[in-house]
Specification:
Length: 304
């Protein structure tokens, strides 16, 4: 009974996680305009670590000291990816930031090739070509230049892909929830250190601004803690291919929310670029297996 219920809830959880993360782009844009990037991430990951550790308090019986170094590694990749993405958000629109970040889905097979010596297949290569074309349409201006915000967002996609590969290497045999707590903890530590070194701590009246409190509350509780739990549970109880496609909708939800709530402009060229990037993500993650299943099913019906 429990297994059946969890399988039914898995895909709605993944959709919810994708929507929460997609909606966080324009919220993050509003927050980063009033609070320095490193301190924004420090507060976000500190809150996320505390909330997740309380939610998963029963998991602490599995703690061993190697969770510390494992969390430090993947927390470092996560902090770097979020930092570069947030700085990039300052120089581009939330919708472009959302879609360019999704490029990491295409990069993962090539980075995994370097680490595990598993060669990418033809679908990965096709996805890379589609993705590069889409990125060009989204990022290049009429004068064929890329804004610094677009360039940083593409760099963040590399770090997100590296983070996924790192998690695959250090997480086997470990409780993913407890490991994530330490990932958040170390990401927060890195953010506090970099904030103290390079940025000025915001004034109290800035931190107590009602709008900022609402934005940070959403980022901590929903975009960090709830969305991550939904992703982890959803991936356990569904097949990887469909889970990846559903999570890639984060970029689509990011564009929709940015257009509706932030007023991002939409042009034909952007729509074509977004479509190519999305098809690239679907190609990379599913290898269009759903089309082959549909074709086989049609042949069976025709024979009948």
């Amino acid at each position: 009974m429990h297994d059946t219920l969890m399988r039914r809830l898995a895909k709605p959880m993944l959709f919810a996680a994708a929507f929460i993360w997609g909606s966080s782009f324009f919220i993050m844009k509003g927050a980063v305009d009033v609070i320095p990037t490193f301190y924004l991430l420090a507060i976000r990951f500190t809150g996320g670590a505390i909330l997740l550790s309380l939610v998963c308090w029963k998991k602490w019986k599995h703690f061993t000291r190697d969770y510390l170094w494992r969390g430090a590694i993947i927390g470092g990749f996560l902090f770097t990816a979020y930092s570069v993405q947030t700085f990039g958000l300052m120089g581009t629109t939330p919708s472009k930031n959302a879609f360019l970040t999704a490029v990491y889905c295409v990069m993962v097979p090539f980075l995994y090739w370097a680490v595990a010596h598993k060669r990418p297949d033809r679908y990965n290569i096709l996805a890379a070509v589609l993705c590069v074309t889409g990125v060009g349409l989204v990022s290049l201006t009429e004068s064929f230049t890329v804004t610094w915000g677009d360039a940083l967002t593409l760099c963040c996609a590399i770090f997100y892909a590296s983070h996924i590969v790192a998690v695959a290497k250090v997480s086997p045999g470990k409780d993913i929830y407890l490991l994530t707590v330490f990932q958040f903890f170390w990401a927060a530590v890195y953010a506090w250190v970099f904030g103290a070194l390079f940025q000025e701590f915001p004034a109290a009246e800035t931190l107590l601004n009602p709008d900022l409190l609402i934005q940070m509350g959403y980022l901590i509780a929903m975009a960090t803690t709830v969305a991550l739990l939904f992703q982890n549970v959803g991936q356990v109880w569904s097949d990887p291919a469909s889970a990846s496609v559903i999570l890639s909708l984060e970029s689509v939800f990011g564009v929709l929310c940015s257009v509706i709530f932030y007023g991002d402009p939409v042009t034909g060229r952007l729509l074509v670029g977004f479509a190519l990037i999305f098809v690239a993500v679907v190609c990379s993650e599913t290898k269009f297996s759903f089309l082959r299943r549909s074709s086989r099913g049609q042949k069976v019906r025709n024979r009948a």
